[in-house]
Write a structure and sequence with these properties.
- It comes from Streptomyces caeni.
- This is Monovalent cation/H(+) antiporter subunit G.
- It is a single chain.
- This protein is 76% helix and 0% strand.
- It is mainly alpha-helical.
- It has one domain.
- The termini are far apart.
Amino acid sequence: MTAQHLLGHALAALGTGLVALAALGLLRLPDAYNRINAVSKAAALGVSLVLLAVLFLMPTPTTATVLLLGTALQLLTSPFGAYAAGRAAYRSGSPLTAATHRDDLRDHE
């Protein structure tokens, strides 16, 4: 096994671990806003690492083009999706956890 394959497998394992961590955050965190944050950050980075791993395991120009475009789109759209989900949760009245001491949007709605 070459160093390139080892790096590819390591990146795939790390990315899969981050996606699993996002799933754990989705199950364990106390409110919708914390869950959205966990999923958007960890899953976006995890998917990007898995796509990068595929690039190391299948290094062709076509694969590189498709996977780099997919990674760019993942990293660009994930923050907007998280923002939209958080805004929808706030507008629907999803309660904040008791540990939250600030509500910066309360006076703006």
